[in-house]
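Q: I have two molecules that I believe assemble together. Could you output structure tokens for the complex as a whole instead of separate predictions?
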Amino acid sequence: MDTILFLAHTEADGTLGKAALEALGAAVELKQPINGTLVAAIFGAQAKAAADFIASCGAQRFLTVEGDEFSQPRYATDAAACEALIRAAGATIVIAAATSRTSRVLAGVAHRVQGCVDTHVTSIAAVSGTITVTRWFYRQRIEGSLTRSHRPWILLLDPGAHAAWQGAAGSATTETVEVPLPDALRRTTVRSVVTPPADQQTIRPDANLLFVAGAGWTKKQKDGQTHVPEAETIILDFLRNSKASLGGSKSLVDLSGENQAALPFMGHLNQVGQTGASPRHPKGLSTCCHGEEPHTVGWRFIAERRAINLDPNCGWARGKADVLYVADAFEVMTKVNELLAAK
Amino acid sequence: MNQLFHIVVCASVVPDPLQTLEPVTGANGPSLKNEMMLPAILDPWAAHALYEGANLARQIAGSKLWLVSLAPKAKLQQVMMTAAQKVPLQLVAVDGPCGGFVDAHQTAALLAAAIRKIPELDFSRLLLFGGWESASRSAGVTLQLIGEELGIVDQFQGVDAIKPQDDGSFEVLERIEGARHQVSVCTGPPAVLGWATGSLGEPRNDPQVGMANMRSIMPALQRATAGTIAPDGLQYSNVAAPKQQRQTQIVKDKPADEIAREIVQWITQE
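A: Yes, here they are, computed for all two components at once.
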């Protein structure tokens, strides 16, 4: 019988993030079809409070690793904590959310516990008692399902891939797992987190809409001139009015890096597609994007898609979007901004 | 005075992103149709790691740079014709499979073994670089596994910058959620850095660098040891490229005002 370990870290404020609750939802759902037992393990600041928050999840045990040294997201201490928790739980299946913190350490932890790991998992299912996970290969271009006989098997579930667990808070009986920390594990110190100023924060993972800007915004328009400052104003106004998240095509982002006329707020973090992100949003609007299949993987996980492009045969939109407006994005988006501002 | 580094960059080859990828399943599990015929490139994020590593090695006198790659030898040779023109490097080649369906754990074991055999490598100065995710498996686990094999407990992923300090420590910027960066300071090597994009553009091809590199690359390719990777309990099913062709409604000859109204209505509806 498998022992499923839900493994999570607390956020800076001591709560469990949405992605962690989604992973818990997947772990709880898996328990019944494989007739497994569920153990919850939490590390980081205020782990006990986080355990209380999920007290009714059905876990047989609640394990915690707490202390100042475990509050910083640092490989050496996080890996030591996760290793200790997996061993203490006797876990055969470990389910965690694919946050930056867990993604940094859990492959290394798999090595320590002589286990195996799969990341960017988008679904976990059990058919006739066999656990099968689904993930993407070649940057969201090929989807595959796989099973492993090796245990422990650590699974990192992508955010947005499962419904979050919901339940009543309570008082969990926690077991504190002690983790020795020699000086060799304290060579790294987390100093700070750099956050873009509020008016330059263009990436909003929880936004309802992903707005994708392509290199066409920086190209010559019908008057034979480029209009980069106008493009900048239109896009930023739209982001402000719509609260959308901004994505950029590779060609546009590369322009910024090559010091060509480009949109100054567009960096590599905005890049979507083959060598960028494939964010999850309910809706997506692409503008002035050109490109074929490899780049359109950037909106693989966008449910409703619309595009504005002067080229009716654009590979980014045709067959990939629900609606393609063959129109000048400068004109349309200016009007859109007027309408949104008036609301 | 900065401490000199021994920088090992792990990078493999991947199909050119512009190629159509079609999975096929054979006796050894899934692979890509005509995989050996597909034009290949150096893995993009690993390539960024290579450029950042070369830049760091150039800045700090005495530093050295190795490129360690596990790939089919013929494919690697093809890719090195271009990659070798970018930055000075010493190649350590392992001849073996490198596609998206190849198990990362055994890949890491082979790469770690190859790194251990580098004769001049001083582990106390080691910075192990690579891409934070490949463009094939896209898992972000191989570097961590190599790091653990080598006993390195300071690891960073999604790195966009490293700044060596005068006392031998270095500051690292890692990408975290919400377009933010976590700033950490590590007292010194050894460390693992899985690079995101970094801040450097792709260097121009330099034929002189290429010619100098090829003098050592060709012998390295000839010396490449063969590595085998077994499924080891890993079994794939239903590997397929999604055929999500949407019925795109093409809207032409509509005034901008009307399109804007339609878009605003669509955006604002729940």
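A: One point stands out. The domain at 198-342 of chain A is CATH 3.40.50.1220 (Rossmann fold).
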